[in-house]
Amino acid sequence: MSVIYLLISISIIVAVLALYAFIRAVKNGQFDDDYTPSVRMLFDDEIKKTENKTNND
Amino acid sequence: MSTQNCFHCGLDIVKKEEIVFDEKSFCCNGCKTVYEIFSLNGLTDYYNFETAPGATPQDIKGKYDFLENEAIVNRLLDFQEDTTNIITLYIPHIHCSSCIWILENLNRLQSGISSSQVNFPDKKTRIIFNAEKVTLKQIVHLLSSIGYEPYISLDNYENQVKSVSRDLIYKVGIAFFCFGNVMLLSFPEYFEVEEFWLDNYKGFFRWLIFALSLPSFLYSASGYYISAYKNLKAGILNIDIPIALGLVVMFVRSTVDIIFGYGQGFFDSLTGLVFFMLLGKLFQQKTYNFLSFERDFKSYFPIAVTKILSDRTEVSVPVYDVVKGDRLLIRNKELIPVDGILISESMAIDYSFVTGEAVPITKVSGDKIYAGGRQTGNVVEMEVISSVSQSYLTQLWSNEVFAKKEDRNYKTITDTISRYFTPMLLLIAFVSFGFWIFIDTNTAFNVFTAVLIVACPCALALSAPFTLGNVLRIMGNRKLYLKNATVIEQMAKINTIVFDKTGTITTNKKSEIVYEGDYIDVKERAFIKSLLRGSNHPLSRRLYDSLPDAHLLPVNHFEEITGKGIQGTINGFFIKMGSASFVGAPPDIMQQTNVHVAINRNYLGKYIFDNQYREGLSMLFENLSPNYELKILSGDNEGEREILEQLLPEGTEFIFNQKPEQKLIYIEQLQLQGKNVMMVGDGLNDAGALAQSNVGISISENVNVFSPACDGILDASQFKKLDYFMKLSKNTVKTIKMSFTLSLLYNVVGLSFAITGKLSPLTAAIIMPLSTITIIGFVTIMSNYYAKIKSK
Prior knowledge:
- Chain A has 57 residues and is mostly helical.
- Chain A has helices at 3-27, 36-40, 43-56.
- Chain A has one domain (3-56).
- Among the domains of chain B are: 65-152, Alpha-Beta Plaits; 167-285 and 417-467 and 731-789, no CATH class; 297-398, Calcium-transporting ATPase, cytoplasmic transduction domain A, CATH 2.70.150.10.
- The mean pLDDT of chain B is 80.
- The interface between A and B is medium-sized, with 31 and 33 residues.
C-alpha cells in the first residue's frame, strides 16, 4: 500500500507543474488581453483564401 | 448591401456626392481612397468580417511633423536597438474584428513594418518596425490614410512605464490550486469509514493537507490580514476584520486538531473560502482599460507645436520647450498650447471645452489668447507670453481644490454592516464560551472557535462585490462606464443632480438654425450662400452647411470685417451679413446668437442659432424631477433661459455665467447643505465640479477621446437613459441588502450548529460553499432582473 506515497507525490507534482505553467503565463502577459487572441485565431483561413484569389488573377 | 450607405464607413451617402468605384458606392473621396489602398494590396477581406467597418481618413497635413524630431520620437518608442524599433500607439477607432485584422496586416501595406499586434480591450497597437526602412511619421501617416489615426498627446511624452499589477491573478491561481488539492485529499475522511488503510495513512493525508493550505493561508489571503490590521489601527471595524479573524482561528484550530489527532481540521473550508473571496474581488475589478478616468490636461495637449524661427522656417518643438517670445503656428483644429498674443489678423477660437461657451470667440491681432482653446479657420501665428506650466489652464488644473477628491473616504454599505456585525459576532462567541466553560472546558474552546469559523462572513463579503461587479458590466454594456464599483453605491445615494449646459444637455454636433424675417427666395438664398463661402468665420461655416444646395455665383468686392461681418457684390446686388449694427438692423434684445442679412441696404431678417438640445431631454428631466433636485449650471450667458424654462419641469434651478471655480464652489455649498450631488458635465470647465461632486459623470460624444477626470463616462447617445441608470443603482443597493439578509440567515444556521458544539468539518465544508454559491446565484439573477425590467 505504500505505493500511495508515490502516487500522491506524482499527482501533487503534476499539479505544481500546472500551477507553475499558469504563473509563467500570467507573468508573460498572456492574461492581459483576453479578447484579441480569440478573434485573431479566426483570421488564418481567410488570409489563405485571399492569397489564392490573387494568384488566380 | 444597402446602396444608401457608404461601403467603407457606413455613413449615409448624400446622393449628389456619391462616388461609385469598383461597383461600390462611397460617401466621399477619403473612403474611396482607403478602399483603393486595400484592394491594391489584396486586403479587401477587411470588408468581409464586418459590414462597413472603416472610418473616413481625416486631413492631417502637417499635423505629425513633430515626428521628425528625433528627441520626441525617442521618447515615444517603447524599445529601440539598432534598427529595430517598437512603438505602442493608441488608436481610438479600433472597434471590431476587421480593425484587428487590418492592423495586424500592416506589414503587407508598408515594407519595413515587421509585425504588429493589437490589444483590443486597450485599443492599442504595438508595431515593430525597421527604422532604416520606414520612419514613425510614415507609419502614422499610413495609419491615418486608412482611417486609423493614432492619438498622440502629451501624456505619451511623459511615458512613465505603468506596471500592471497582476497580484490578484497570482493569488487566485494559487488559492485555486490549494483549494482543489486540499478538497481532493480531504475527501476520504468525510466518509469516516473505520477502515484499516485509512487509519494507517491518516497522518500522511492530514499533514499534506496542512502543507498545501499554507500558500493559500499565508500568501493568497495576505491582503485580508493587512487590511484588517490597517483598519483596526485606524479604529474602523470593516468587513476584513471578521474575515481575517475567522481565517486565523480556523487555521490555528485546524492545526491544533491535527497535531493532537482530534480530527482533520477545517483546511478544506479555509482554502475554499479564500478562493471564493478572491474570486469576488477579481469579479469586481472590472476596468475599462481603454478609458481613463484620471486624465488631466496632458492627454488633451499636443506633444509638439510648430515654431517659426526668425528666418521664417518652421520647426516642430516639444511643447515643454516653448518659451516666452517664441512664435508659433497654429493650424485649423489645433489646440492653443500656451497663453499668447495673436499676431495674425484675426482668428476664431472654440473655447467650448474650457469655458462652456457655445459660440467660438473671434480675436483680432494683438488680443490675448488663452491656452486650451481650439483654433478654427485658417492658419494663424501667435507669440508666446508664458510657458506651458504657467498658462491659465494648466494653473487651473494644478489648483489644489481641483484635486482633493482622493482623500475623501467613502464608507461602503459592507463597511456599515460590519460595524454592527463584528461586535455581535464577538459577543456571541464569548457568551457561548462563557456558557460552555461551566460544563466542559474542551467543548467551550471548540464552540468558541467554531463560532468564529462558521460566522466568518464569507457570503456577506461576497454579496457586494458580485452584485456591483455584475451591475458594473451591465452598465458598461449600456455605455455608462464607471470608474469602479463603489460609484454605483454612491449613485444610489444621490439626491441632487447638477447639469452643465453646453455639450451636456445640448449637443455640439448640429445647431438648429432658424430664419426670422422677410421672405427670402431661391435667388437671394444663392447670394447668401455664395457670400458665405468666402468666409471662414465659424458662424458662416455653420450657416453655409445648413443652407440647401444652391447654384453658387462669383462674388465681387468681398470683404470680411473682423468682429462685424462680411459683405460683397453678386450680380450687382450688394449683400451684407453680420452683427445687427453692421447690417443696420435694430439691436438684438434677446441674448441670442444671430446673423443678420441685408441686400442692397434693405434689412431682410436674421438667422438665429439655437443650441440643439439632446434628444429626450424633457422626458429625462420629467422622470428625474420627482426624486431629485435638478439644477443647470452653465458657463454660458442667459440667452437660453426662457427656452430652458419651457422645456424643463418646474423647480429646475438655473445658474448662468459660472466660471470653473464658481462651479466648484457651488457644488461645495450644496454639499455643505447636506446634499449628495451628482455633477453631469463634459468639458474642462466642469473638471473642478466633477471632482468636487459625490459622483461626477462626464458626457462624451466619443468615449475614446478626451474627457475630464471623473467617476464615470456616459456615452452621449445614452444621455436620455440617465434616469434608468439612477434607478438601477438604487435597485442594486436593494439587491445587496437582500442578499445580506440571506447570508445572515446562513450564519444563524451555522451558528446554531456551532453554539451547540456540533460543528463537524464536514458540516462546515458543506455550509460554506453552499452559502457562497447560492449568494452568487441570487445576486446575479436579481441584478440582471432589475436591469431588464426597467429598460423598457
